[in-house]
Design a protein that fits this description.
By secondary structure, the chain is an alpha/beta fold. It has one domain: Rossmann fold (3-Layer(aba) Sandwich), CATH 3.40.50. Helix content is 44%, strand content 15%. It is built from 11 helices and 8 strands. It has an 8-stranded mixed sheet, sandwiched between helices. Bound molecules: adenosine-5'-triphosphate and magnesium ion.
């Protein structure tokens, strides 16, 4: 199972929009058994799939080891895609992880899901703490959505440095422009500065995901946003294949 973390310490950069749409791409376009794990107490991923608030204040029990993940996982309306939901009990997750003193709790819980899923997509909260450190140690790749501004490269370098600080074997880190508006010169300059970075356009169809509570591929499949997300997912799959090919063979 590969673990794809959608992470940034910055809020409102498109993490949940991207995580939910990529999870749908993984299940529906690549036919992978996919679990979307919402680690943000605001339960945005659950909301995006109209599955929020199904179980109250139980998410922390998973981390405490009181219940298995299977007790919390909900199927979505899409074949091959399940949700491990969040709730307000995760507000204290960071202090709980510190109290537990297990530096790889997220990775350990992830390994328990290995037989049931091919892809685990993490929708991360905008934090820089023990929780984000554990996410970095558990991830196979980390996708970092960045707003298109001249500060983006700097912000990305900062995240990359933090990830290297957290683990001796840092996962590949993929930067992504998350809200490109080609009518704005600053956005065009950002694109020109990093022409190899993938990008997602700033468009109403992606805002609509939170209104319709569905992935864009289900209601506007041929739009630039849906195509950009599908291309992004294919790029992530290529990176996962490279990581798997480079991994030492067992025995
Ligand atoms: N490419 C896009 N085009 C237009 N609107 C977008 C795009 N990406 C995200 N949005 C909108 O921007 C807002 C923030 O997006 P989202 O919740 O995905 O960000 P986030 O990084 O998960 O935020 P948080 O840090 O609060 O969890 C939402 O209203 C969403 O609909
Ligand atoms: Mg979010």
């Amino acid at each position: 199972m590969a673990v794809v973390a959608i992470y940034s310490p910055k809020g409102g950069v498109g993490k949940t929009t991207i995580a939910t749409n990529l999870a749908w791409c993984s299940a529906q376009l690549s036919s992978h058994r996919t679990l979307l794990w919402d680690l943000d107490p605001t339960d945005g991923a659950g909301f995006m799939f109209a599955l929020e608030g199904q179980r109250k204040r139980q998410a922390r029990s998973l981390f405490a080891g009181d219940i298995p993940a299977s007790a919390l996982i909900c199927p979505s309306s899409y074949a091959g895609l399940d949700l491990l939901p969040s709730d307000a009990s995760l507000r204290e997750l960071d202090s709980m992880l510190l109290r537990l003193g297990q530096r790889n709790r997220i990775a350990t819980l992830g390994r328990q899901l290995e037989r049931s899923y091919d892809r685990l997509i993490l929708d991360c909260p905008p934090v820089l703490n023990e929780l984000s450190g554990q996410i970095m140690r558990a991830a196979t790749v980390v996708i970092v959505p960045l707003p298109p501004s001249p500060l983006s490269a700097r912000a990305f370098d900062y995240v990359a440095e933090e990830i290297r600080r957290q683990t001796r074997r840092p996962p590949p880190i993929l930067p992504l422009y998350s809200m490109i508006d080609r009518r704005r010169s600053l956005h065009l300059e950002a694109l020109a500065a990093n022409p190899d970075w993938p990008m997602i356009p700033l468009v109403s169809s992606l805002e609509q995901c939170a209104v319709q509570r569905r992935p864009v591929g289900t209601f506007a499949p041929r739009t630039p946003a849906a195509l950009a997300l599908s291309r992004l997912w294919q790029g992530i799959e290529r990176k996962l294949a490279q990581v798997a090919a480079a991994a030492p063979t067992p025995g």
